[in-house]
Design goal:
By secondary structure, the chain is of the alpha+beta class. The chain is built from 7 helices and 18 strands. It has helices at 10-17, 34-43, 169-179, 203-211, 216-219, 318-346, 363-377; strands at residues 23-24, 50-54, 64-66, 72-76, 82-86, 107-108, 115-116, 122-124, 148-154, 157-161, 189-199, 232-237, 240-245, 268-273, 277-282, 286-295, 298-310, 356-357. The strands form 4 sheets. A 7-stranded antiparallel β-sheet has the order 11-17-16-15-14-13-12, with helices on both faces. A 6-stranded antiparallel β-sheet has the order 2-10-9-5-4-3. It has a 3-stranded antiparallel β-sheet with strand order 6-7-8, with no helix packed on it. A hairpin with a 2-residue loop joins β9 and β10. It is globular and about 75 Å long. The structure holds FE2/S2 (inorganic) cluster.
Amino acid sequence: MGKLTDFLSETDIAGVTQANGRLRRLPGLVFRSDSYHRFEQTAWLDRTWLFVGRCSDIPNPGDAKPIPGFPLFLVRDALGEVHIFHNACRHRGHRLVKGKCEGLRSLICPYHRWTYALNGQLKITPHFAGHGVHASDALDPSKHGLIAVRCGIWHDWIFMNLDGQAPPLEDFVAPMARKLDFVDFAALRHFLTMEQREIPANWKICLENTMEPYHVPYVHKVTAAGQPLSQHYMVDEDPVIGSAIDVPGSSYTNRAGTLNLSNLDMSARYLCRLPNLFLTSYAPDVIVDTMILPDMRDPRRSWMEQAWYTTSGRSLSAEEIEGWRTLEEAVIDEDIAVMSEVQHGAESRAVDDGGVLSPAWESCISSMYRHLVARLSDERPGEAI
Ligand code: FES
């Protein structure tokens, strides 16, 4: 697997861990190197919980969906249980689920028609032992079912733990639940999911952009006109980091408040439970999840999805839902434009030293890299997430 100092110098590591107020970013190779990308996945992401989908994505038995960026898929079995499986047939590895599916009765490999129950059990291996002879002493179906990945569910959100050794999911999400203790998660009502977007940038560049407010007055000058930089502040409580804004007159307790969906003009919490559970809480009663996943094969590519909920149990009108869709698509387009340009810059020697971070507006990014360095230096899998 290697070790962190195979990729980063002691100076690089000291740059993000020093406590002298000078905050540095990690060097450009962490956004572009294939070998570092594999190391980061093995040493960190395989050992923790990753947010990979929603129960509302696969609401009925027989619904299935690939996990973006990973050769894995989600499926709901005949009894309603959610599973995560490796997306490869146990015969010769053909992909099983290429896109979102509904109402499947079984999982059938298109190559030689091996057929699996929705719970992963291998059921049929056509003509495996000769024409018309499906069963064989050479193949024990009970040992060739689909390979499952540890799966956990918190409210609507589905998580996976690839090495199966992480502490319980409830421990993982507890810091986020505490930061949003004013939210009644039991009352969540889903009202919108934005289609998956492919982002031409490393997933950490997406995390950086999503958690810091420094860019808001420039990149989202119109779409977030009601959220002036002067009202923002940092949330820096590893492993929950990000930013927040309190807009005068916009309250979480005044549920009668209405939103002006011409721009983001409300109080908000933009919080990430590292590594990738990002929840935005908009006053008075809307919560948005942002799922940012790396592409396992390509450090320069990542995937993003978002879903919206009310937290008061109320339903929104079609007009309000369309307002959210239109506004957020504009915000995401603005973000994708800058994230792809930051990836372009990561190819330059000018960012071999990473760059400097604002102590006022980007301490959350510094915390993210300290968290990353700690995880990548940790030789005791599963003890810290
Ligand atoms: Fe799936 Fe042959 S690869 S049945």
